[in-house]
Amino acid sequence: MTAGKTRRTTAPRSRTAAVGAIAVAGALLLTGCGDQTKDNGSGSGSEKTNTNSAPLADKLPADIRKAGVIKVGSDISYAPVEFKDDSGKTVGIDPDLADAMGKQLGVKFEFENGTFDTLLGGLRSKRYDIAMSAMTDTKDRQEGVDSDTGKKVGEGVDFVDYFTAGVSIYTKKGDTQGIKTWSDLCGKKLAVQRGTVSHDLAKAEAKKCPKGKAMSIEAFDNDQQAQTRLRSGGADAGSSDFPVAAYAVAKSGGGKDFELVGEQVEAAPYGIAIAKSNTELRDAVKAALDAVIANGEYTKVIEKWGVTDGAVKEATINGGK
Question: Which domain holds residue 260?
Fold first, then answer.
């Protein structure tokens, strides 16, 4: 949520997601804050519960069960997936789902803010137990491969997949400049978040642009910076995951700043990243996610944030391609 933010780094695929952009963007206008996870200063998490009474507590590794905390690495600047509200609390789809899973596991999910493209490194160094940040599950990430070079850069991770999202392009409202597809960005300037699938798609498309119509790509640390660049007129278009782009269109400037153009592409799963060596934690997180899907809490969260088209019916391990 890099940010699949559709945050991922993988070779692009030509796959269009069948999602109603107008319906979702409209639903996003109705989203509110409601019950949120408790902010601990650096992040968010569920209220710590009695691990003896939590139904899935015994599935956790002993050290995490004893600590009562799962440390979460996340780029908390990707509304509506995870972001800070006006009071500074971490809110969004991921924190709400983490809160629900925490009640099943009897632990608190503590979100720690980090730059998206450093989260897997933080997971490998054991700074975090999991990374939950609109991160697209890809084979390259599963195998620890840099998608640009094809070289091994570290130990891969396992993913517990929990949502599906594609990538969208958006422009300043009323100033689309005829942009509808990625090829229309040739000769234009695009603002994206660094290391995301939008960034990957832009780099791949730029190689196809004809001579004299080069695509200029500006990559930023987070999506909010990319939005600011477009809003100020410093770029012709922006790109991010569909839920994020739709939320920006609905919310920025009271809905007067941006508009979606064309269809979303590259539909793929968001996954919770966990070290391959930590299969016990991976399986506990999967069990917790399946439990909140079964008891209806998952649906409540997805409906609350107006992104029902990306809902899944069950948790999947390493479903990305």
Answer: 166-266
